[in-house]
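lol ok so funny story. i was supposed to be doing the assay writeup but got distracted and ended up predicting the structure for this chain instead. priorities right. anyway since i did it might as well share w the group, maybe its usefull for someone
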Amino acid sequence: MALRITGGELRGRVLRAPKGRGVRPTSARVREAIFSILGQRLDSLRVLDLCAGAGSLGLEAASRGASHVVFVEQAREHLRVLRENTGVLDGVAQYEVRQGDARRVTGLLASQGESFDLVFLDPPYAGGLAEELLGCLDEKAEQILAADSVVVVETSSQTDLPLSVGVLECDSPRRYGDSHVWFYRAPQRTE
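and the output, tada:
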């Protein structure tokens, strides 16, 4: 299945999607809705794409101006396709691809002082990983989430996430077909 970047500098570029029954790339309709809410320009943002799969969310962010994207993926087949897809970013944004479990890599990034303005979290629908990863992000919020950052979570429309996870507060979730999209905000910090 071929995917296309829906907006920004790389609009129309074709991306590959991993094959397999459990593969569920974020649809163009859902990506367009997400970026309509976030804004079409994400100039200079640092982005973390957890459970990246083909990387379509992080690639969309880079196409729309994000300066740096870290993609995290565990599955080998997905990782191979992700590395191929990130080739479109040469000269557009800095990026890195990290292989591993999103929980472990999140802790590692936090310990390395990495901080992100925008986090995409699109884990497999089954297994409750979305709520667990939200907990990991909240636990490391001071280190890994920039002030007033946004965490975008995609789940099955059958999944209910809490509207509050530690410091993360959710605006009302949106439903698009079989998907729910949740927008959590980290609070602004007062120094």
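The chain is about 30% helix and 30% strand. The longest strand covers residues 145-156.
back to the writeup now i swear
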